[in-house]
Amino acid sequence: MTALDTRTDTPAVLRFPEGFRWGTATAAYQIEGAAAEDGRTPSIWDTFSRTPGKVRNGDTGDIAADHYHRVDEDIALMRRLGVTDYRFSIAWPRVQPTGRGPAVRKGLDFYRRLADSLLDAGIRPVATLYHWDLPQELEDAGGWPHRETAYRFAEYADIMADALGDRVATWTTLNEPWCAAFLGYGNGVHAPGRTSDLAALRAAHHLNLAHGLAARVLRGALPGSAEVSLTLNLHAVRARSQAPEDVDAARRIDAVGNRIFLDPVFHGRLPEDLVRDTAAVTDWSFVQDGDLAAAAAPLDSLGINYYSPAVVAAGSSESPSPWAGAERHVRFEPAPGPRTAMDWPVDADGLHELLVRLRDELPGVPLVITENGAAYDDYADPSGQVKDPERVAYLHAHLAAVHRALADGADVRGYFLWSLLDNFEWAYGYSKRFGIVHVDFATQRRTLKDSARWYAEVIARGGLAES
Ligand code: IFM
Fold it and tell me: Where do the annotations place substrate binding (predicted)?
């Protein structure tokens, strides 16, 4: 494959700092396929996607984008785009099928080969240990609401550090623990599909603990140059009005959506208002001495996934809700403006708001946008082209927001576009396309969308040609 012609006479009007990382991101269950190959056993997502009614059209990740068999082609695509970094996740049940005990060599070999090929292509591997595919056996033993799962995760982190520590530059423990806890155990729209506020809060705590235990294990096992991180999908919450009830609704969502992770991980404490808000659900006695200190392991950066903001007002949410302790106090209002195919509002200011907030609240913590992107109803036209001007506009606006945050003093080190490939979009199956590379799931043919060409130019130019 030849490199894309990204020569351009147009200089960057919004130039990003030297050394800024330009990446694409994916996750194992969403692209790999090969669900029963080489010793991989079911994860909670294999089970959930097979449960009637849980995933649109009954789609599963059995084949997905067949990345397991097409990894070379996919790395060649990234090389054409000129990305500096690639963020992928490791499927826990592919390397440690039961979530306990020794690793499976073939599973480790796949990720070793992936990392080696990336390095050969001049692309920095950025690995996430957990992007939601818990081995089913661990869910059967209690899943994330069960404390033991955190210790199992630390053991798995140790296995991976040993196997890939010499190749992977940045390690992210968890991706979006909010989704794992509150969509998985709170409203049940994600695997494993449980609906219990208590289970969701327990899961959130054990994910924080798992993160901290794993971060320490990684530090002990990895070379000093390796970076350890965590990725959160922080909610850019806005109150509908300045009425005290609406402002309080925003506070509640901030507590159970953001500070439930930020406070333990960066300050070793639970938010007091969250404990009050959830008093009818739990007294938090599952938090043991030392847990919060363990969660607060020092990190090299914080990853932020951002798609859209949320507008809230006093009211109540539908049941089951993922907002433990807030559901009877908060109503989500439609945000104004255009929407993506997910029906998510397009509002890049939310990203800027989050970045300047973190600049102020977490001074000294480098920030990385580990996911940002949009789904649209893309198709290949008769000439084989995939035109996605809305995605280009979305990405442009969000990169401009990142640039504005940099100018305002936020320490943003990189941007990972979600996603490299069209993929299995969880409960939406294959009905939503987030890729900058179109995948024809019948043939597995990959086609660069216009947004991929646009992103390659941005990378080559080191920024945006227009403000
Ligand atoms: O596809 C997901 C990804 O797995 C996690 N962050 C949000 C994306 C879009 O929904």
Answer: 30, 131, 175, 307, 418, 425-426
pLDDT number for residue 325: 94
Answer whether 217's CB lies under 8 Å from 154's CB: yes
Q: Is 363 exposed, middle or buried (0-12, 13-18, 19+ CB in 10 A)?
A: exposed
SS3 254: helix
Is 2 within a domain?
no
Find out whether the beta carbon of 371 lies less than 6 Å from any atom of ligand 1. Answer: yes
Ligand 1 centroid–CA 110 distance in Å is: 23
Q: What pLDDT score was predicted for residue 3?
A: 67
The proportion of the chain whose per-residue pLDDT surpasses 70, expressed as a percent, equals: 99
Is residue 73 annotated as part of the catalytic site, yes or no? no
Q: What confidence score (pLDDT) does residue 10 get?
A: 79
Render pLDDT for 61-101 as a digit per residue (tens, 0 to 9).
999 999 999 999 999 999 999 999 999 999 999 999 999 99
**Among protein residues, the one whose CA lies closest to atom 4 of ligand 1:** 27
What is the count of structural domains for the chain?
A: 1
* 2 has a pLDDT exceeding 90: no
Contact 175, 28 (CB under 8 A): no
Ligand 1 close to Cβ of residue 66 (< 6 A): no
How far is residue 137's CA from residue 156's CA, in Å, rounded to a whole number? Answer: 14
191: DSSP letter? T
Distance of CA 261 to the CA centre of its chain: 14
Q: Is 176 assigned a catalytic role?
A: yes
Distance 425 CA to ligand 1 centre (A): 7
With tokens 């990853």, the residue in question is 303
Q: What is the arithmetic mean of pLDDT over 51-68?
A: 98
Q: Are 98 and 137 in contact (CB under 8 A)?
A: yes
- Kindly state whether residue 172 falls inside one of the protein's structural domains: yes
Q: What is the pLDDT of residue 348?
A: 98
Contact present, 358 and 402 (Cβ < 8 Å): no
Q: Which residues in 53-71 are b (16+ Cβ under 10 Å) and which e?
A: ebbeeebbbebbbbbbebb
Give residue-wise pLDDT tens across range 127-150. Answer: 999 999 999 999 999 999 999 999
CB distance 176 to ligand 1 below 6 Å: yes
| Residue-range definition of the domain harbouring residue 356 | 14-462
| Domain CATH for 286 | 3.20.20.80
* 275 belongs to a structural domain: yes
Is 390 among the domain residues? yes
> H/E element holding 138?
helix 136-140
